[in-house]
C-alpha cells in the first residue's frame, strides 16, 4: 500500500507542468475548488499560523479585467478560475484562534496552549514587518505548491503567475494593507500540452556532509 501511494505521488509530481493554454469552455464547479483548497490548507506553516488567504475569481467579466492587470496573460481569461494567494503580514492575529482550537480539539492541554500563545505573541508582535513578510511569503509558497499537486491529482492543470501589478490588484479587490498578493494560480483543463522542461542535475546541487 505504501509503495503504491509513493508511486502515485511520484507520478503526479512528474506529470505536473505549467499549462498556459486552457479549454475556455470547461468550468470547475466551485465545490471542487473548495475541496482542493480544503486539502491545500493542510500545508505546514510557521507556528501553524496559516498566513494565507484566497480570492477565487471565476466570473468571466472579472477575469477579463484581471487579464489587463496581469500583463495580458491569456490563461487569466481562459482558465476555469484564478486563485489569488495572499500572504497575511499580521499573522499574529491568528494566534488565539489557532491554539484555542487545538485545545478544544483535544490536541493540547490548557497549560501548553497558554504558554505557546504567550511565546508566539511575544515573537510575532515584536518581529519586524520584513521578517513577517518573509514568513508569509515562504508559507504561501508551501500552500501554493500543495494546491497545484492536489489539483493535478484531481485531473486539473495549473500555472502560477507572479507577473501582475500588485498595487492595481489590491485596489481592484479592495485588499487591505494587512495582506500582500503573492501569486495568481490559473486552474482548469489544458487545451494544449505544456512545454517540457529540464532540471539541473542533482549531483550539481547536492552535498552530503
UniProtKB/TrEMBL annotation:
Gene3D superfamilies: NADH Oxidase (3.40.109.10). Signal peptide: none annotated. InterPro entries: Nitroreductase, Nitroreductase-like. Keywords: Oxidoreductase. It comes from the Bacteria. Residues 13-189 form the Nitroreductase domain. The keyword Oxidoreductase applies. Belongs to the nitroreductase family. This is Nitroreductase.
Amino acid at each position: 500500500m505504501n509503495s503504491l501511494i509513493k508511486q502515485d505521488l511520484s507520478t503526479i509530481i512528474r506529470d505536473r507542468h505549467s499549462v498556459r493554454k486552457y479549454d475556455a469552455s470547461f468550468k470547475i464547479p466551485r465545490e471542487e475548488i473548495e475541496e482542493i483548497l480544503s486539502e491545500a490548507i493542510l500545508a505546514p506553516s510557521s507556528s501553524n499560523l496559516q498566513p494565507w488567504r484566497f480570492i477565487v475569481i471565476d466570473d468571466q467579466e472579472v477575469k477579463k479585467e484581471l487579464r489587463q492587470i496581469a500583463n495580458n496573460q491569456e490563461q487569466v481569461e481562459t482558465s476555469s478560475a484564478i486563485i489569488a494567494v495572499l500572504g497575511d503580514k499580521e499573522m499574529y492575529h491568528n494566534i488565539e484562534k489557532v491554539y484555542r482550537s487545538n485545545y478544544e480539539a483535544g490536541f493540547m492541554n490548557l497549560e501548553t496552549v497558554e504558554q505557546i500563545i504567550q511565546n508566539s505573541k511575544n515573537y510575532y508582535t515584536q518581529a519586524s514587518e520584513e521578517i513577517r513578510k518573509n514568513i508569509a511569503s515562504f508559507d504561501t509558497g508551501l500552500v501554493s505548491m500543495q494546491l497545484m499537486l492536489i489539483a493535478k491529482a484531481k485531473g486539473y492543470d495549473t500555472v502560477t503567475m507572479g507577473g501582475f501589478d500588485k498595487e492595481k490588484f489590491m485596489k481592484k479587490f479592495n485588499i487591505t494593507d494587512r495582506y500582500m498578493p503573492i501569486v495568481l494560480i490559473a486552474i482548469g483543463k489544458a487545451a494544449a500540452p505544456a512545454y517540457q522542461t529540464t532540471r539541473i542535475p542533482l549531483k550539481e546541487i547536492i552535498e552530503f556532509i
